[in-house]
Amino acid sequence: MENNNKKIWFRRKTYGFGWTPVSWQGWVFLFVWILVFLSLFSKIDHEGGKNILFMVVMVVILLYVSYKKGESPRWQWGKRNKGTDDKKID
Questions:
Q1: Running DSSP on this structure, what letter comes out for residue 48?
Q2: Is residue 65 part of a domain?
Q3: Based on the structure, what is the number of domains in the chain?
Q4: Which domain holds residue 60?
């Protein structure tokens, strides 16, 4: 069950699908995620298959946190209409 009083870290994009940070927690998480991604990516063996697994794990982490701490995902074509149902579908 979704808590309607929770503070979101990420808001849905106005056009398309995805999220953008809207709180300091979201920006800090994104900044740390980018730093970890770049620092670990620069140290992996670029000849092996580990880099694909590494990228998949990092993207899954980013998507999971965005989903849990953000608005429910859906495709959008502009500004939201008032009265639109924002409930997550589990």
A1: S
A2: yes
A3: 1
A4: 44-77
The string of pLDDT tens digits covering residues 61-79 is: 998 998 888 887 777 776 6
Amino acid at 37: F
pLDDT at 40 over 60: yes
Planar angle of CA 16, 41, 22, nearest 5 degrees: 35
φ, ψ for residue 17 (rounded to 5)?
Answer: -125, 135
Query: Which token pair is 41?
Result: 């990516």
Instruction: Tell me: pLDDT of 44 over 80.
Output: no
How far, CA to CA in Å, does 5 sit from each of 28, 55, 88? Answer: 21, 33, 14
3 state SS of 3:
coil
How many C-beta atoms surround the C-beta of residue 10 within 10 A?
Answer: 24
Q: Are 19 and 66 in contact (CB under 8 A)?
A: yes
